[in-house]
Amino acid sequence: MSKFDELKGMVDALEKDFNAFYEKGNKAAGTRIRKAMQDLKDKAQEIRTEIQNIKNSGE
Description:
This protein is mainly alpha-helical. The chain has helices at about 1-10, 15-25, 25-55. The chain has one domain. Helix 1 (about 1-10) runs antiparallel to helix 3 (about 25-55) and helix 2 (about 15-25) runs antiparallel to helix 3. It is elongated and about 50 Å long. The two termini are about 20 Å apart.
């Protein structure tokens, strides 16, 4: 579950920047969000690969 907790932490850390961007129009927050979303995408791919490897080794 540590991978899940890590993902949740990454998403939770974005809340302040989402509010700053969407409610206050802070463009720098938008840049931080885009970078963090790319990091989330990379982490998700890493987890998908790990799951696939575990699944395949169990066959």
